[in-house]
Amino acid sequence: MDSELEAFVPLFPKAELTDPVTARKNLAELAAGVPAPDTADLDIEDRTVPAHPDVAVRIYRPQQARGAVVWLHGGGYVMGSVDTEHPWAARMASLSGAVVVSVDYRLAPEHPFPAALDDGYAVLTWLAEHAAELGIDPGRIAVGGHSAGGGLAAAVALRARDRQGPPIRFQLLNQPQLDDRQETWSQRNFTDTPWMNRDKITASWRHYLGSRPATAHAAPARATDLSGLPSAYIATAEFCPNRDEDIAYAVRLLQAGVSVELHQWPGTFHGSQAILSAEISQRQIAELGAVLRRALAE
After folding, report:
1. What pTM, to 2 d.p., does this model score?
2. Structural domain for 236, as ranges
């Protein structure tokens, strides 16, 4: 493990999701300790997207932005909000030059699948319909997120393809949670890794799926046809249970004719890009912004 990251491991709360309320509190406390981003170059606005039910979003607008990303926070489908995601959404907007629409989607287990997906897709549809109002090109819309948010972004892309919905230019998937079956080597063997481990992911899927069987729109790795999806950037962490399913998804996208950039970060663990004092974490965040900037500028 990267030595700068390893020093922070004892500071993380125990990796479990047996009590969602406590887990949310722990995540909020961790997010509150992240250094505040410089938002002087951004217009930030909280809005409500009309849907059934309505969806709260926080919009980050850099000057002269041409593209936008529907941004879905991490948290195992159980934790997180636009507030805990603020440090990353703001940085993403500044680094990419894109409008970032951070989605406050409904959380499991109170709202199991497909609630979060419905919210993310509603925001994508709204963004495409209101592109002119927001000053962006409707042909330059991406979806993206960390962890469970990356899984939701992949699911939104699948739903948009299957429903012939709004066109999506790009998928930015950072350590996405894609496969409820947990059959890969990394899922079976990473039982004591920092922040996210096999048991925590098992609980996450149990909360998210509830009594419903898993489908491709719930767990995108189950999709049998990945053709016609937007080009993608997929980042993985070496000591992350999601690592192997993410690499496999990238390979399957390539085999389906989808252009993919895959970056496996050595010495990292799930969510370690949040440790901004570490040099490798700074590089991870900078690359996410640069990749999105390039994808929406082409």
Report:
1. 0.97
2. 3-297
